[in-house]
Amino acid sequence: MQIASKVGSPSEQRTPCIIAVVHHKKVLSEAAQILDKNTNGLISSLIKRGDLIDEIGETLLINNCPGVAASRLLLINGGSSKGATESEFRKIVAGAAKRLKSLGIKTAIDTMHRTHVTDRNGLSWKINTIAQEVSAAAYQFNEFKTSKSKNQGFNKLTFLVNDTSEGKKMNAACKETSGLIQGIDLAKNLANRPANICTPTHLAEVSISLAESNDNLTTQVLEELDMEKLKMGALLSVSKGSREPAKFIIIKYAAENPSQAKPIVLVGKGVTFDSGGISLKGGAGMDEMKYDMGGAAAVLGSMLAVSIIRPEIDVIGVIPATENLPDGNASKPGDIVTSMSGQTIEILNTDAEGRMILCDALAYAEQFDPEAIIDIATLTGACVVALGEHATGLLSNDDNLSNDLLTSGTRSGDRAWRLPLWPEYHKQIESPFADMANVGGRAAGTITAACFLSKFTKNMAWAHLDIAGTAWKSGIQKGATGRPVPMLVDYIQSKALDKNCDED
Ligand code: BES
Ligand code: MN
Ligand code: ZN
Fold this sequence. Notes:
Number of domains: 2
Distance between the termini: 41 Å
Largest sheet: 9 strands, mixed
Number of strands: 20
CATH topology of the largest domain: Aminopeptidase
Radius of gyration: 24 Å
Strand content: 15-25%
Shape: elongated
CATH superfamily of the largest domain: Zn peptidases
Bound molecules: ligand BES, manganese (II) ion, zinc ion
């Protein structure tokens, strides 16, 4: 979806639809007042009659309104005229997005961004919130539909401003938001692609093409032979059960004038299909394990967003990509392998493969001396049980990093919730035969998985995002969400502006 801004009057826009807010107590927003004047009081008379007075986010559509150049006028109940809270604003925007989608039009002009939001400042936040919501409602994945629907979907949202000085501020906000939206859409497309198309090789090809088309990105792809040389025994123990070659992808964004010396490193789990391996999963819903590369998709999506937004901080993406299948050569429960870090692991369950590939990626990433390292993984079913689809699980060895991520999550509407990593939990992954076991029993599955990872990140400020519940939706609405790209991009942007970081 394209995002643009434009200077002009609400009544004069030739567009399929113009969106305007009406407040409680029959108070019209400034844009609605102008429209009302041009329609000889049509809006105020409808409001007086009792339309659009109940719930925030409720909509009223008026077609072919005399005096208005737009074909449709979409009015939204915007709550109190004193301003909306953050969550009220989200409701307003969601209501509009839903109605827009049902209209089947391609473009619209917005004035919702003029609403005062009481607990958030800044235009960018409003533009981000509106564009994310409208773009999410408009998203369609029809790469594999032979008869593409005639309506190719909503593809452009224009924010209307009063004058050129407002327009300038708006252009900067639009550019940032457009980067974010493109990143989210890339993450969704990658995750939605089936596992026979979206293989480790495909992820590597996407990374290569991103680097080709963006001058501030470079990429490098390691082959299994390279992984052997690096002694990535944990990662290779997963990939040896599959005939698709594993790929280890490194993608770097170089800022023009980095505000600090050290990079942020993002590590994304790229299991392009997780059958469980020899510890085979049940058949029900197994198709959804194509989404087990949601972490990798979020890393590539964030790298695209960052390359467009150009924040002043270096960012490195690292993606271990493999399938997890039960071949004759697959790892077996009880097998012991040596990870790149030198620590040995007893594989008690081949379905706990995510941590096996991540531990080698985390050990590899230590050479970048990261300011912060964040891994993103559809790691545990237990996280879905604990937090459902609303919050990403966050576990970290660093309170500042953790708080920054929580803040970014709240601000971007892509929330996380922190779980503890207390020493007591580490006992669950002790092994009688190796340095650790790869599973720790049923209790606290999300935490013990993170305990495992923490053994490979001792020298870094590290956070783990378990996106098992948030990366995709099941059921009739099945599809990738693009999460946690909004949280990550917000974090990277705020870190780039943060001049207080050590520059040692
Ligand atoms: N990819 C799965 C986690 C998962 C399961 C995410 C369902 C979303 C929905 C992961 O590789 C896995 O299989 N984890 C096991 C760990 C267990 C063996 C300790 C799980 O959660 O059952
Ligand atoms: Mn698994
Ligand atoms: Zn998995």
